Amino acid sequence: MRFYDREKEQQELRRIRQLAYTNMSQMTLITGRRRIGKTVLIKHTLEEYGDMLYLFIARKSESELVSTLIDSLHEQTDMYIPDGLTSFAALLRHLLEQGKHQSFTLVLDEFQEFMNINPGVFSDMQNLWDSYREQTHINLVISGSAYRLMQKIFMDKDEPLFNRADHIIRLHPFQTEVLKQILADYNPNYTNDDLLALYTITGGVPKYMTWLLDNGCVNKEQMYAYVFSENSHFLEEGRTLLVSEFGKNYGTYFSILQEIASGNTTQAQIEQRLGGISVGGHLKALDETYSVIRKERPIFAKPDSRTVQYSLNDNFLRFWFRYVEKNRSMIEIQNFEGLLRLATRDYETYTGLVLERYFRQQLAESFEWREINGWWRSKAIVYKGQTIDAEVDIIALSVEGKKALVAEVKRKKEEYKHELFMLKVEYLRQTELCKYQIETKLLTLEDM
Asked: Where are the beta strands (DSSP E) in 89-209?
């Protein structure tokens, strides 16, 4: 798949490079989940200048790593590298010395691996950077794929490199318009259901889109067939992403995420499903430490409201826990056909829920709204003599003025019940939205 989007990030990387070369050395941290395209962005943007030194930090002994890095530098540049360097601190000191006389970009990829190789590198690097930064012209770009470790290294106030990054570029999945552009390039006659399948599986993560589209999977049937095939990259991807993050206690985290992906979204529901064990601490860690889930409260709810549901932030992980991890036994006996049938049979029900997430993202990308969320109550409400379920898919509040969009999301128009929806809208008009000018909308596959 060719390079798409990232114009703002490329512009920022070029701006920072110029700043480093004309002012003083700059340290840039590029963050984002695995497979989001950090390395591809760096190389696509900065290689063209011809002065980039790219160093990949592989997990091995420090002396062996330094030897490998020196070999890599010899392949990329004719810069003098003295013999006998065995520590990364010594190599970095030499590169910083060179930065007094010449400007160049230095990329350290998979930087978090120093946590396993030699954590003392972070203190050494702090001292060296503080000593050399103002007298050198190096564009230092650091990236890493372990979210928790990168957060700890650079965001924890007790860590040596806290506050050392001059710039932080956060990479997110592709926006909905970019998904449309990419899919149209591969399949000009795509349907909205094909687009929804691509969004459901990949969530706009570039590498996942590459796995599908470059394998000729350009419609929903081909995508699902590939995901649930014996040689699919996707089957082990969830474990690849998370086991190294969670460590040896990943089992409980996986059980919680599987329950959330299956629709058990409150703490009480999760604890009941897991035999009554307390999971409050695990939920807090998944939210605040790992950023895998988030708390969701109804729009207008107070910050301390106990009306809380949990959802997975990541489309792929939500999909993976619901179908792959949940049915691990089918994979172990190589029943891929049965797994495909199971997921295909559930396709319309599951993607109906994903479609709601798609439209929320699409609304957010318009920059017209200051808040977008759903509205619900734990119990049904009685209004005008009728009992109605207290749930609305989307309420969006405008940036300017007292305007609100109230939307119902359905895969198909024939599933929509207008009278019931308008009764909910009337209730909201008399309560939470009494001061707002309300626009109502039905959003279906046709509106993607």
From this structure: 104-109, 138-143, 167-170
Number of domains in the chain: 3
Alpha helices in 263-383 (DSSP H): 267-273, 280-284, 315-323, 328-332, 336-345, 347-365
- The per-residue pLDDT for range 362-395, each reduced to its tens digit, is 999 999 999 999 999 888 888 888 888 889 999 9
Residue 401 has a CB neighbour count (10 Å cut-off) of: 9
Q: What is the pLDDT of residue 386?
A: 86
| pLDDT (tens digit per residue) in 322-359 | 999 999 999 999 999 999 999 999 999 999 999 999 99
By residue range, what is the domain housing residue 37?
7-170
Angle formed by the axes of helices 192-202 and 315-323, to 10°? 90
Task: Of 78-87, 147-156, 213-222, give the lowest mean pLDDT range.
Answer: 147-156
If you search the block for the tokens 């706009």, which residue do you land on? 204
Report yes or no on 413 lying in a domain. yes
* Domain closes at, from 333, 350, 381: 333
Q: How confident is the model at residue 294 (pLDDT cuts 50, 70, 90)?
A: very high
Strands 309-312, 403-409: pairing kind: unpaired
- CATH number at 282 reads 1.10.10.10
Distance of CA 155 to the CA centre of its chain: 18
Cα–Cα dist 211/233, whole Å: 8
Q: Rounded distance, CA 69 to CA 80, Å? A: 14
Of the candidates 29, 288, 287, 292, which has an alpha carbon nearest to the alpha carbon of residue 154?
29
- 184 three-class SS: helix
Q: Is the separation of the CB atoms in 226 and 53 below 8 Å?
A: no
Q: Are 423 and 374 in a shared domain?
A: yes
pLDDT tens per residue, range 439-448? 999 999 999 9
Task: Write the CB contacts of 414 (distance below 8 Å, at least 6 apart in sequence).
Answer: none
Gap between the Cα atoms of 235 and 227, Å rounded: 7
Average confidence score pLDDT of the chain: 95
Burial of 65 (0-12, 13-18, 19+ CB in 10 A): buried
How big is the chain by its Cα radius of gyration, in Å? 25
Residue linked to tokens 């899919």 = 183
- Burial of 251 per CB tally in 10 Å (0-12, 13-18, 19+): exposed
- How many whole angstroms separate alpha carbon 28 and alpha carbon 46? 13
Considering the entire predicted model, what is its pTM?
0.93
* CA dihedral of 78, 83, 86, 90, whole degrees rounded to 10: -70
pLDDT in the model for residue 306: 84
Answer yes or no: is 188 within a domain: no
